[in-house]
Amino acid sequence: MPTRNHAPIGAPCWVELATSDADRARAFYTALFGWSAEEPVADFANYFNFRQNDVRVAGAWPFEPGGAGQADTWAIYLASDDAAKTVELATAHGGQIVAEAMSVADLGTMAVLIDPTGAGIGVWQPARHTGFGLIGEHGTPTWFELLTRDYTVAVDFYRDVFRWHTEEMGNTAEFRYTVQTDGDDRLAGIMDATAFLPAEAPAHWSVYFWVNDTDDAVATAQRLGGSVVYPTEDTPYGRLATVADPMGAQFKLMAANDQMPAR
Fold first, then answer.
1. The domain containing residue 16 runs over which residues?
2. Can you point out the beta strands (E) in the chain?
3. CA of 26: how far to CAs of 35, 44, 220, in Å?
């Protein structure tokens, strides 16, 4: 079981669903991934966590539909050893503050930013809550990716603010991609999406969940009321698809294929 007790600095460490229908979200994700759902905590605005194999892998918070600027979406948090300092660095490098660094009881310290390319990103300085404890097995987060039209700006920002070590995977008009590394491990990616990101779509982060079978997971998502955003395709990085839950929150599914050895 690929467990993780802590995330490297700057690495994705938590994923969080903002949902306009918490009951339907609980039913959808528990059936899709085999998750269990904790009870909502009234003191934290009815926030609740999802578990896989009794390990926390994601969080969710409900919001009232119709709120200005609020949408069903998955968010990603990057690990920090000093959230206040990260916020300071972010503003110095062109980022905007959505939520200043604030303590969340004894769990840790959080902040929310918008990077200079317009993508929202969370900051998490762990205390008792160290983030998701499983990665890269069925129903757990496995990859995290920023799509942006301002590729160079984004790469510089995450290096300067979150202390990323990076490796360039491609630098052509067809494929311009940089990954965050920790030794031999690749943790997250930034893609130049200028050629294909729709004009109305802002820069944004996406979370990939590992599944045993992408086609089966897509069919299950549709049966549960979800929809297909981008159909299943084989790539050198696995068999991928993009789907949305019944409320519209998008996420990606990923499984091994003949081009990528099974785990």
1. 12-126
2. 12-19, 36-37, 48-52, 55-62, 73-79, 96-104, 108-114, 120-126, 140-148, 165-171, 176-182, 185-192, 204-210, 227-235, 238-244, 250-255
3. 9, 17, 15
- Blockwise average pLDDT, block size 10, the chain, 263 residues: 82 98 98 97 95 97 80 97 98 97 97 98 97 94 97 98 96 92 96 92 96 98 98 94 98 89 51
Question: Is the distance from CB of 114 to CB of 90 less than 8 angstroms?
Answer: no
CATH number at residue 210: 3.10.180.10
Q: List the one residue out of 211, 187, 233, 216 whose CA is nearest residue 33.
A: 211
Q: How far apart are CA 129 and CA 126, in angstroms?
A: 6
**Are 73 and 175 contained in the same domain?**
no
Q: Determine the Cα–Cα distance for residues 182 and 219; give it in Å rounded to an integer.
A: 35
What is residue 239's predicted lDDT score, i.e. its pLDDT?
A: 96
